[in-house]
Amino acid sequence: MAYTEDRDYWFEGQGLWQHVPPDYWNDWGWQLKNRITSVEQLEQYMTLTDAERRGCEHANHKLALAITPYFFNLIDRDDPDCPIRRQVIPREEEMFVAPEEMLDSLGEDAHSPVPGIVHRYPDRVLFLVTDRCAAYCRYCTRSRLVSNAQDYNFHPEYEQGLRYIESHPEVRDVLLSGGDPLLLGDRKLDHLLSRLRAIKHVEFIRIGSRIPVFLPQRITPELCEIFRRHGPIWMSIHVNHPRECTAALRDACERLAFAGVPLGNQSVLLRGVNDDAEVMRALVHRLLRMRVRPYYLYACDLITGSAHFRADVRKGIEIMQSLRGHTTGYAVPQFVIDAPGGGGKVPINPDYVEKVTDTEIVFRNFEGRVFSYPLVPGKSVPAEAQPAFRP
Ligand SMILES: *Cc1c(COP(=O)(O)O)cnc(C)c1O
Average pLDDT over the chain, rounded to whole? Predict the structure, then answer.
């Protein structure tokens, strides 16, 4: 996966859809209506591999196929290993189930007091407000319910969810997710946000969304005005590869930032997509240029049919080591494993600590040089006793 970045290339334009009037192209309703949702449509635009064609045949029983024209343009149709292609075009490997895999690998259903609410941590809840997305990531952690391909029949229960939050004063943080909350219309979002804002103990509202990446046209001035009015609203977007950082995404992030929405990014470490230090470095640098702070890098959840996506966790640690100290601290996300079965997110870090004695902690810096720091005031190790440089 040799990756050479063209640092000033931000994809622009309508690609394969040159014939479409810009007013249509820039309309999010048009983008949704014209999504690619079948193998026949896909084959109008590209040659699928056999594994992809077989994957598409099964997709309707696992997780629907849908790709916006905007995002489809980012696929390199001549490269079967294209990192954008891997994320959204089904492959037959999706139908293989490894023994460690689960339908609900984070145990969300078991932590759900009312439909749509996942209450795992003491002071915050996840509020699932829809089961639809603009496009479907093939490694989706909620494929059991998202797109309803598995007949889960998720019905978002706003009133029940809101009542749960209202009656739990310990909930100071509400994370709207789904599905993608930004697929809701402006009126619905406005209503939901004002209801949440009216709850005295809710201090912090955030939205998890891949819409800026799949459908930047949705980030309209009207939507930004809703966020500004109900702000502060924080947002986590989901970018995995530097090629997703287009001019349209950059502009959408600018509109959000100018409306006062602090932006973070959550990436999933995916084999053949971003399990590479150079790719990840290019990604985090591009994110900062778009005013987006890398937040989490997730090990891929043990979701059914994800084996071909899961990268070696040791590779993730190595990538973290290649970032910390070597580049801007703001560019470095926290690598986490969301504990299988439902233990929450656990930080997985390179080990910088060499040893801890009664008097000192001994550790290495990003270059591998060894240092120590006293544990007890007044009992510090004299400077001349500091271990010498060890490569
Ligand atoms: C990820 C997640 C959160 C938010 O976790 P933070 O570490 O605060 O970003 C909250 N609830 C659930 C169930 C989650 O999976």
Answer: 95
Task: Tell me: do 72 and 189 sit in the same domain.
Answer: no
Residue-wise pLDDT tens digits, 28-60: 999 999 999 999 999 999 999 999 999 999 898
Known catalytic membership, residue 276: no
- Looking at 46, 62, 92, the residue that finishes a domain is 92
Full domain range(s) for residue 148: 109-347
Active site residue 351: no
253 is catalytic: no
3-state secondary structure of 36: strand
Peptide bond into 232 cis (omega under 30): yes
Going by CA atoms, what residue is nearest to atom 12 of ligand 1? 126
CA of 80 to the centre of ligand 1 (A): 34
Q: 137 catalytic, yes or no?
A: yes
Half-sphere exposure of 194 (CA within 13 A, CB side): 7
Contact 158, 192 (CB under 8 A): yes
The reply to whether 161 and 263 lie within a common domain is: yes
Ligand 1 geometric centre to CA of 294 (Å) = 16
Q: Which pLDDT does position 378 carry in this prediction? A: 80
Sheet with 263-269, side-by-side order of all strands: 117-121, 124-128, 173-177, 204-208, 233-237, 263-269, 292-299, 334-338, 345-347
Nearest atom (ligand 1) to Cα of 336? 7
Is 250 found in the same domain as 205?
A: yes
pLDDT at 390: 54
Phi-psi category of residue 234: left, alpha or beta, with phi > 0 → left and psi -120 to 50 → alpha: beta
| Residue 121 known to be catalytic | yes
Q: Residue 327 phi/psi, 5° resolution?
A: -145, 175
Cβ < 6 A, ligand 1 pocket: 118, 120-121, 124, 126, 175, 345
pLDDT, tens digit, 9 for 90 and up, residues 120-164 = 999 999 999 999 999 999 999 999 999 999 989 998 889 999 999
Total of domains in the chain? 3
Residues 60, 203 within the same domain? no
Token pair 């509202």: residue: 205
Cα of 126 vs centre of ligand 1, distance in Å, is 7
Lookup: tokens for 97: 């189930």
